[in-house]
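Intended use. Records such as the CDP-archaeol synthase entry shown here are meant for training and evaluating sequence-to-structure methods. They are not intended to support clinical decisions.
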Amino acid sequence: MLLSLELFVMLVMANGSPVVVARLLHQRGNWPVDGGRRWRDGRPIFGASKTWRGLIAGTACCSLFAGLLGVGWLFGALFGLLALVGDLLSSFTKRRVGMPASARAAWLDQLPEAVLPMTLAWWWLNLPAWEAGAVSVLFALSNMLVSPLLYRLGIRKQPH
């Protein structure tokens, strides 16, 4: 149970640290992962809010935290990277269906960034599948409930 809580915290860190770093650094280092390029449909591949700075911040944060927990910095780095790859997949999908950057898509915004790293945890840490699934759903639900609050507090730029 403690491991599940730690993995939940890592999901929050992977997705929250890019936001915190963006607030601290403002426009410095915000190079888009897609380089501003567009897909064959003429829309951005991911969008300007998906940056190398955020990818590095989320990966590094999880790596450090996992190292401190004793599950290993490499596991943490892969966990954080997979969470952010899940976020990129969500953005890619939303751009393909014509949704603008930062548009809300319940479950699509949360599940890929939880399921991918929790699949790694299931495999790497021999976590029961039901537990990995439960942490993923709990993360998605908490994200949908807490994000509007963070927006009202001025921490997030969008309420989702």
